[in-house]
Amino acid sequence: MRTLCSSTLIGEFFIIGFAGLVAMKDPDLSTTTVWLVSGIAMVLCVLLCGMVTRPGGVALGWALQLALVASGVFVPTMYFMGAVFAALWWASVHYGRKVDEAKARFAAQAASTPSPTTPDAA
Hints:
Elements: H1 2-23, H2 31-51, H3 57-70, H4 77-112
Helix pairs in contact: 1-2, 1-4, 2-3, 3-4
């Protein structure tokens, strides 16, 4: 799960950066505010890459997805991009857990079956 979720979060890192560039063109928003909010969100993406497998990591990821969709108020394209990344986040969590379960099942199966021994050459 960690690899899939981290890949999604790194993609979001770049999307948030590009959205910050677009938001800078809005005369109602100050450059400082745009980069403070974008910078915090970008740092959160990177930090979440390491927290995905810890308790609450996936929930924080969902909070980030909601914030990404909500950023559409300032950059309308982010409604669409936020929805795309929320779907990618769901897929990463869902299929990542399935992959982790399969790995655990194969590891348990490999541990329970005796390894074939090769006859010693005399």
